[in-house]
C-alpha cells in the first residue's frame, strides 16, 4: 500500500492506493494519523479508500484505531468512496454503521467542517 496525504482546512486527507493488509508499510498510516494529531493538533481525518481493492482484518484494525484515536480527542474520521470489495467488507463487519462513508473529498471536507462536527 502507498498513501499520500495533505492537510486542508485542518483536516488530514489521506489517499490510499493498494491493498490495506496491516503490513509494516500499512502501519505507517496509523503513525501518520498519530503524529499529525500530536504535532499539529489535527483531529479530523478523511481517508480515501477508492483505490484500496482489498482490506483484511488487520487493515480494518488500523482504520478502527485511527477512528478511536481521533474520536477520543473530540474529532472524527470519515471514509471516502470505498471500492466495491471494501464496501462489502464494511457491510459484513457492520463497520459501515461506525464510519461515515462519503462519495468524495468535497463531501468529506463539508462533513468534517467545524460547524458540522460540533453537531455530531
Explain this structure to me?
The chain is of the alpha/beta class. The protein has a single domain, classed as 2-Layer Sandwich (Transcription Regulator spoIIAA). It is 45% helix and 25% strand. It contains five helices and five strands. The chain has a five-stranded mixed beta sheet. It is globular, with a radius of gyration of 13 Å.
H-E order: EEHEHEHEHH
By CATH, the architecture is named 2-Layer Sandwich
Give the oligomer, counting copies of the same chain as homo and different chains as hetero: single chain
The low-confidence runs, each spanning 5 or more residues with pLDDT under 50, are: none
| Physical arrangement of strands within the biggest beta sheet | 1-2-3-4-5
Global structural class: alpha/beta
The biggest sheet, with number of strands, parallel, antiparallel or mixed sense and barrel status, is: 5 strands, mixed
- Dominant shape: globular
- Number of DSSP strands? 5
Q: Which percent range describes the beta-strand content?
A: 25-35%
Calculate Rg over CA atoms.
Answer: 13 Å
CATH fold topology: Transcription Regulator spoIIAA
| Average pLDDT taken over every residue | 91
Total domain units: 1
Helix content: 40-55%
Number of helices: 5
CATH class group: Alpha Beta
- Specify the CATH homologous superfamily: STAS domain
Tell me the distance between the termini: 31 Å
